Amino acid sequence: MSTPIPWPVPEPELPADVHPALAAVARAAHRAYGEARRRHTRAELGTETAMGADGTPTMLVDRLVEDAVAEAARAAGANLLSEEAGFLDNGSAVTLVVDPVDGSANAAAGVPLSCIAAVVSVDGTATEALTCWFDTGRSWHAVAGRPTPYRTSGRTRLDGAALNVLRPRPAGRDAWHRLTDRAARIRILSTTCLEGALVAEGSIDAFADAGGDVHRIMDLAAAMVTVPAAGGAVIDAFGRPLEIDPDLTRRWSGIIAATPRLAEEIAAAVTAG
Amino acid sequence: MSTPIPWPVPEPELPADVHPALAAVARAAHRAYGEARRRHTRAELGTETAMGADGTPTMLVDRLVEDAVAEAARAAGANLLSEEAGFLDNGSAVTLVVDPVDGSANAAAGVPLSCIAAVVSVDGTATEALTCWFDTGRSWHAVAGRPTPYRTSGRTRLDGAALNVLRPRPAGRDAWHRLTDRAARIRILSTTCLEGALVAEGSIDAFADAGGDVHRIMDLAAAMVTVPAAGGAVIDAFGRPLEIDPDLTRRWSGIIAATPRLAEEIAAAVTAG
Hints:
Two copies of one chain form a homodimer.
Chain A: H1 20-39, H2 42-45, E1 48-51, E2 57-59, H3 60-75, E3 79-82, E4 86-88, E5 94-102, H4 104-109, E6 115-122, E7 125-133, E8 139-143, E9 162-165, H5 173-180, E10 185-187, H6 192-201, E11 206-208, H7 217-229, E12 233-236, E13 254-257, H8 260-271
Parallel strand pairs in A: 3-5, 9-10, 9-11
Antiparallel strand pairs in A: 1-2, 3-4, 5-6, 6-7, 7-8, 11-13, 12-13
Helix pairs in contact in A: 1-3, 5-8, 6-7
Organism (chains A, B): Marinactinospora rubrisoli
InterPro entries (chains A, B): Inositol_monophosphatase-like
Protein name (chains A, B): Inositol monophosphatase family protein
């Protein structure tokens, strides 16, 4: 029998200078996810309710949080580009690119590793990013072109790295092992955006999709602001440009790494086969 | 350049009826780990300082937290069986079996997934267990023979399960894929004791060491009390009895599962090769 997740969802801890629209969607997401946990069992939260604008199934937890995010974006006067709803035009020069629930399967099951990740985009350029971990309220904030408190580990070599990955898929098993066999530590946390934050702050050396083309732009957008500011790099394993684009059928194999050199070394390992 | 982990370590949130010696070691461990984070960089915390009584290297973070745990056990008048120090006889009928820092690599690096796990053992029988997640203060407590609030997911089949594992090792790759290929979700969190708590509360269906003989008794002892009380099972993949034993060279391939049937099905998959 499926049970509710008993743990509370605290308010996000936000820095004073965060963009008001980012703060608004983060607070709305935390409240909505907390409410969803109180009202629904794990099985209910994980029920697929529809097909999202990105072509993947939407779970109930995704829909409940995204509805709250969409309302908060509208109230803040910003456009929204989001996984399930696609592009919502509220007539603004500012678009929020948001993954309302990164790590949806974790969020539905009660594995305490999920977050909201959002960026401010102006004319297709990400200018500011916020990632908030639902279970703790811990947040990571970065503004393009400004110093941040985050410093990556600085690692340049894959051999001996602490590497986070997605699970291996049958078709990509060789690339997965080419990559993971060289790492000192392997983790699969199933939450790309939190894993990007861990790269930015130096807790892990890198995160990689080993060629599975799993990532949508909202999975990588916050890292694209936060990680370079901390000394790292975000690239696609196959060299495709990472672009904020309302076409949510586009996919990338994201690599988020402590240094540009490590990112390139990981890409070389993924594509060597 | 390695940096300190900036996040605080809160006090553990403990139920009123927890054994005072368990509460004492949990509080001491949280304080010591918080202090270790403030004083040392990630690289320092991860430096191997000695060889533990269990035959694996001791990191600085392990030593600092275990020293505090040993002092708390002594002050509480309990014996201690711990990974690094081995058995400390304080002349008591009660022995605390403790993993002072489960997920040591996470704890040293700043990956926010590590905990203290401890049981009260009387004449080799575990009677009470406490697991406290350092980064949140969240705790799981169970007393043998008493009802607990935890309910596992109740899953009985491996096919489609949410399964946590250790990373694959070259020698055990076949068993690892036999197991993981059948699961719907795979995670590697690198903290067996927290993963056991997630099985107990129904957030994941199972955790397994796919035949690597990685587990010491303190990796499994808390789950051995908490998980059966919640409907699940803890077994060794090769059918060896799980025993609290001061001989810390003994190893098991622990399986922590939502039901006895799921545990047996995982064991069969691991040993089928």
